[in-house]
Amino acid sequence: MSLEMFTQHLFNALALGALYGLIAIGYTMVYGILRLINFAHGDIFMVGAYLVFFTTVAFMPAWAAALLVALALLVFYAVFFGTRRPPLWFWPPLFFFCLTAFYYGFFAPRDFTPPWTVAVAFSIMVTSAIGIAVDRVAYRPLRDAPRISALISAIGVSFLLENLGVVIFTGLPRPVLQPEALVTPLVFSMSALTGNPESLVRVAPIALIVPLVSAFLVAGLLYIIHRTKPGLAMRSISTDIETTRLMGVSVNKVIALTFGLGSALAACAGIMWALRYPQVHPYMGMLPGFKAFIAAVFGGIGSIRGAMVGGLLLGFIEIMLVAFFPSLSGYRDAFAFVLLIVILLWRPSGLMGRAMEEKI
Amino acid sequence: MTGARRDCLLNVLLIGLLFFLLHVAEQQLDAYSIRILSLVAVNAILAVSLNLIYGFTGMFSLGHAGFMAIGAYVCALLILSPAQKESMWILEEIQPWLAHLSAPQLFAGLFSDPDMARQLGFLCAVSLGGLAAALCGIVIALPVLRLGGDYLGIATLGFAEIIRVLIVNAASLTNGSLGIKGIPQYATLWWNYGWLLFTLYVIVTLLRSSTGAAFKAVRDDEIAARVMGVNTFYHRVLSFTIGAFFAGVGGALTAALISTIDPKMFNFMLTFNVLMIVVAGGLGSITGSVIGSVVITVMLELLRPVDSFAPGTRMVLFSLLLLGIILFRRKGLMGTREFSWHILFRPRRQQ
After folding, report:
1. What is chain B's mean pLDDT, rounded?
2. How far apart, in whole angstroms, are the C-alpha atoms of residue B230 and residue B226?
3. Picking from A207-211, A240-244, B6-10, which range would have the lowest pLDDT averaged per residue?
4. How many whole angstroms separate alpha carbon B127 and alpha carbon B131?
5. Is A73 contained in some domain?
6. How confident is the model at residue A234 (pLDDT cuts 50, 70, 90)?
7. Contact present, B84 and B179 (Cβ < 8 Å)
8. Does the pLDDT at position A104 exceed 80?
9. Is the confidence metric ipTM above 0.85 for this complex?
C-alpha cells in the first residue's frame, strides 16, 4: 500500500475512532458508577442525530421543537432541583429558550430553518434530557434489584426508542445534506515524504473536524470529572456508592448528571456521525452502539481515557483490516465482536481498567 | 390411588385432550389460526430453552437468535430438494457435496411410502439442526461461560452476531444474504406440538433430577454451590448446551413453518421476543414460559391492526409492556411457581 493511501486511511480511522470513543465514554461512565450496560445509549445517539437534522432538513414543526425544549427544561428542573427553588442561573436560559421558542413558534416564516448552532444546541439539550429521563423512569426504580433486571430494562428502553423512531420518523433511511465546506476535500501534497510530486492526499474537512471536536469535548469532560465538585462526586460514587451517600452527596442527582453528560456526548457523536456518513435511520444506533461498548471494554470499562483509546484503536483496526485485507471486508462487523470475546477472556479489565475482584 | 400414579394418569389424559384439540383445530380452523397455534408451540420451545439457561441456571444469554439461525439453516439445507438448490444458489455455486444432500430423498430409498420418508427426513433434519446448534453451544460455552452476569450477555450477543455475519459470507453454503426460499412446510401442528411435548418432558425431567438441583444451586449462589461440591462449570456448560439444542430445534421448526429464511431475520429482535416471553412468564417457571408464549404470541397477532395506524406502533407497545413488567412486576406472571396436579388436589384446610 502506498503511503498516500495509508495516510488517507489513517484519517478515516481517526474520525471513526473518535466517534466510537465519544459514544464509548457514555457507556463507560454509566458502567463505572452503576455497573449497568446502558443498552439504550446507542439509540440515544440515534436520537441526537435525528433531532439536529429533523430541525434543519426535514422541517420539524416549530411547535414540536418548542414542546420538546419545554419538556427538556422540565426534566432538568425536576431531576436537579426537585421542589426546591432553582438557583438564579436557571432563569436566564429559560427566558432565552422561551423567547426563541415563541419566535420560532409564531413569527418565523414557515420554511425557515434555524441556524445550525441553534439546531445543534437544541439536539444536545433534548438528547441529554432524554438520557436523564430514561435513567429516572427505567433505571432508578431498579437500583436495588438484581443487575440483570436493570439490563433487561435497558434493552426494553433501547427497543422503545428504536420503534418510536420508526413510528415518528418512519423506517426509511433519510439522506443528510452535507454542507459543501465540510466535504470538499482538502488536498495535501506528500512529495516531501515520498519524493514524488504526484503523491497527494485528499481529506474531507469533516474527517479533521471530528477528531478535533472530540478531543475538545473529552478535555472538557475530563476537566469536569477531575476538577469540579460534581466530578468529584462521580468519582466517589464509582468507588463506593453507599459511603458517598453517607457523605451527604445526593447520589441520584449525580447519576442523573452522568447520564446527561453521557447523552450530550452521544448527541455530539450522532451529529458528527450523520455529517460523516450522511444518512439517518432509526436503527443507526445499534451497531455503532455495540461497537462503542466493545471499545469501552477494550479500553477498560470505567475509565474515560480508556474509552477514548479503545475507540481510537477499534476504529483504526477496523479501517486497516479492510484496507489491508479487502477480502475480509464482509467480516468487518463481526470483527469487533471477536475482539470483545478475546478481550474478555484474555484481559477482562481492558487496557487501562483496574481489575475488579469478586467478593464473596 | 397414590399421588404419582394419579399424576401420570392425569398427564396422559391431558396429552390426550391436547391431541384431541389439535385434531379439532386442524379440521376446523383456517390456515392463519393454525399458523398462530404453531407459532405458540415454537415460541414455547424457544422460551423454555432460554428459561433453562437464564431462569434456572442464571446465565444471562442473548445468543438465542444465533442458535436458531444454525438450527434453521441446517434443517432447511437438509430438507430442500436438489432441484431447488440448483436454482436458488445465484451468488456462488453451491458446494457439490451439499447440492445432492436431501434427507427425505435419503429415506426414500429405505421406505417405499414417500410420506413416511418425508416425515422421517424432517425429523432427522430438525434433530440435526438442534444437534448442530448444541455443538455450537458447547464451542461457545467453553470460552464464554467463564464470564458472568452482563458480560456473558454481551459476549453471547456477539456470538449471535458473528454467526449471522458468517452466514452472510458463507454464500456457497447458505446462499448468503439472499436467504433460502421455498423451504417445504413440513412443520405441521403435530410436529410443532410433538416437539414441544418432547422439550417439556426432557427439561422438566432434567430439572426434577439432581442435575436440575445443581443448576438452581449454581443460579442462586455459585460459590456456595462450588463449596458443596457441585462442578459449576460442567453444569453451566450442560445447561447452555441443552438450551442451545432446543433453540436450534425451535429455529429449525421456524424455518419449516414460515418457509423463508434469511440472515437478517435472525437479528437481536428475535432474541428480544424470546426474552420478553420468558420475563413475562416468570424467570424460573416452565409453566410461566408456556403461558407467556401463548399470551405474547396471541397478543402480538391481536395487536397487528395497531400497525396500520403507523408502522412500528405494535413494537412500541410491546417494549412498553416489557418495561412495565420489569419495573412493576419483576417476577412475571408466575414467578418461580409451577403448575402441578398437587395444587388441584390439595386437601382443603379445615376451618
Report:
1. 88
2. 5
3. B6-10
4. 6
5. no
6. very high
7. no
8. no
9. yes
Cell of A239: 468507588
Pairwise CA distance, residues A162 & A32, whole Å = 25
Q: Which residue of A has its CA nearest to B280?
A: A152
The band of A360, judged by pLDDT with boundaries at 50, 70 and 90, is very low
- How many Å lie between the alpha carbon of A283 and the closest alpha carbon of chain B? 12
Residue A332 distance to chain B (closest CA, Å): 9
pLDDT grade for A355, boundaries at 50, 70 and 90: low
- Mutate: best of B145, B151, B156, B326, partner A, most A CBs <10 A: B326
Q: Which domain holds residue A126?
A: 3-59+113-346
pLDDT at residue B350 is higher than 60 = no
Q: Which of the four pLDDT bands, split at 50, 70 and 90, describes residue A113?
A: low
Instruction: Test A160 with B146 for CB contact under 8 angstroms.
Output: no
- Check residue A170 and give left, alpha or beta (phi > 0: left; psi -120 to 50: alpha): left
Q: Does residue A79 sit within a domain?
A: no
- Smallest CA-to-CA distance from B254 within B41, B31, B42, B7 is with B42
Residue A344 contacts B where some CB pair is shorter than 8 Å: yes
CATH code for position A36: 1.10.3470
Q: A6 at the B interface (CB within 8 A)?
A: no
pTM of the predicted model as reported, rounded to 2 decimal places = 0.89
Judged against a pLDDT cut of 70, whether residue B80 lies above it is answered with: yes
Domain count, chain A: 1
Is B57 in contact with B232 (CB distance < 8 Å)?
A: no
Q: ∠ at Cα A228 (A227, A233), nearest 5°?
A: 110
Name the DSSP class of A85.
P
Per-residue model confidence (pLDDT) at position A359: 46
Asked if residue A318 belongs to a domain, the reply is yes
Asked whether residue A358 is domain-assigned, the answer is no
Under a CB-based contact definition with an 8 Å cutoff, are residues B111 and B238 in contact? Answer: no
Measure Cα distances from A39 to A237, A283, B34, B83, B175 in Å.
Answer: 21, 13, 36, 45, 32
Please tell me chain A's helix, strand, coil percentages from 3-state DSSP, rounded to the nearest 5. Answer: 75, 5, 20
- Higher pLDDT: B39 or A181? It is B39
Tell whether the model's pLDDT for residue A158 goes beyond 70. yes
Using the Cβ of A321 and the Cβ atoms of chain B, whether some distance falls under 8 Å is answered with: no
- Interacting residues of A195 by C-beta distance below 8 A, sequence separation 6+: none
- Compute the average pLDDT of residues B204-223: 92
Q: Which residues of chain A make contact with B165, given a CB cutoff of 8 A?
A: 330-331, 333-334
Distance (Å, whole) CA A57 – CA A278? 12
**What span, in angstroms and rounded, lies between the C-alpha atoms of B73 and B132?**
10
Q: What is the mean pLDDT of residues A311-324?
A: 91
For chain B, give every domain's residue range.
32-267
